[in-house]
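REQUEST ID: PR-0412
SUBMITTED BY: lab tech R.K.
PRIORITY: routine
TASK: structure prediction, single protein chain
INPUT:
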Amino acid sequence: MNAPTDGSFSQPDREILLAQIRESYGRVVYTHKTHEKQADLYFQKHRCEQRFFVGLTALSSGTFLVALLGLVVDEVWASLVTSFVALLISGVNLSVKTFQYGEETQKHRDAAAQVWNLRESYLSLITDLRAGTKTLDEARARRDQLQQQALEVYSAAPRTTSDAYGLAQKALKDNEELTFSESELDLLLPVKLRNQQDGKNNDSK
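STATUS: complete
OUTPUT:
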């Protein structure tokens, strides 16, 4: 049997193209979730860093005041403690300038936002393929366009870690963060747009 020449789908062609696009969609979903988890990890480190810095600053001020008021008998120990706390503060400052967890957090959030748009575009293409609203040539052109967009997004995105990927895998496979039951979706929609109406409406004929 000859393939259609008008750009419409034959069933084997449609299934092959759909399988490829579904595979690409899956990779994009994991990339998006991994960047989200990486941003969360860096944000946690950023908050811990800031809290530690504030705590050391308060401790340094308290130690200085104690020494100033003469409440510490041994001035040598007071001087050593103050110097040690100051050294720790310098170390935290160097860490902030070196690792820049706050900036890294924002970079991964920005990357996740871009990948989210790519993810939703792939989902829309899969929907169009399922509905048969695109010809074979149109679907292929859209696929190639999305692949180019993915290349640009991935090239500019910061690197992620294995820890972030592990958290993303757990979120998607075990916690099902990207999936909803019919009842959950209905609760998010206005009443008139829900698949399942109230029992009274269903029973009334």
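NOTES: The longest helix spans residues 11-68.
REVIEWED BY: pending
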